[in-house]
Amino acid sequence: MSVRPEPWHAALHRLQREGQPHVLATQVTSAGSTPREPGARMVITADAVFDTLGGGNFEWQTIAAARERLASSEAGMSLEAFSLGGRSGQCCGGFVNVLLEVFPGSQASLAVFGAGHVGQEIVRLSAPLPWRVVWHDSRDDAFPDWAADQPRLTYRHAPDPGAAVAALPAGCHALVLTHDHTEDRTLIDALLHRDDMGSIGLIGSRSKWASFRSRLVDAGHDEAALATVRCPIGTAAGGTGGDKTPYAIALAALAELLPLVGHGERADQRGLDPAELRQIFG
């Protein structure tokens, strides 16, 4: 276990901003002799711990419970009860309840292929969204300086399109808009072979897509697979004779993605049952 000097509130802010999976552990009640007071907090990730609830077996058990939930991507809240003289084997002998709030990180991911004008505007506009963005370009000098400061963004020199596509997580949404049509077609071919992408979008005209379709059919892709590719992207802006500026196309392309990504609330993300809270605090 790696214990970091960063205080829990700074770590929480950073991890939330970066979209990294983490757990906030808060001591909510205590009875008898306990290492810390109610309100004490710590933040736990898969490989690091920030701040402390007092140490000892009780803290180790809290960390283990948090990481078990992280490993299974169990979003939401759960309550852990510790009898320090029983479950935790600590001589102080008190009793503690710890609330675990699990944040699985950004569940939506977007891969942007191409760091040209439209690609840059897409990445800029996606910054406020709770998505993890991976930005690829085959040119090693294509990325702007501001990319280093954008949260939840990873940018990579990707001279091998097939390898870049193979590294994407399942369910990732992809937008293809490189500087080269041959590279675009190679990327679409590789993305279709994955068969587990969230969605695939390609910049260009309808005539470009007609040419690509013919070659992709020759490469073995059937009509059902080809129908999953959106081309052109951003039709609300430039695809029908409207505003064809990079900003307008990027804005329309992201608007098309929003209903595809979705952030529906699940029943297990609604918090603790009121009856359980009344029992704790009553």
TrEMBL record:
* Pfam family membership, one: XdhC_C
Native species: Billgrantia gudaonensis
Q: Membrane spanning segments where?
A: none
Q: Which residues form the XdhC- CoxI domain?
A: 16-76
What is the name attached to this protein's record? Xanthine dehydrogenase accessory factor
Residue stretches making up the XdhC Rossmann domain: 110-257
- Taxonomy-wise, where does this protein's organism fall, top ranks first? Bacteria, Pseudomonadati, Pseudomonadota, Gammaproteobacteria, Oceanospirillales
Please name the InterPro entries in this protein's record: D-isomer_DH_CS1, MoCofactor_Util/Proc, NAD(P)-bd_dom_sf, Xanthine_DH_XdhC, XdhC_CoxI, XdhC_Rossmann_dom
Q: Which GO terms describe its molecular function?
A: oxidoreductase activity, acting on the CH-OH group of donors, NAD or NADP as acceptor
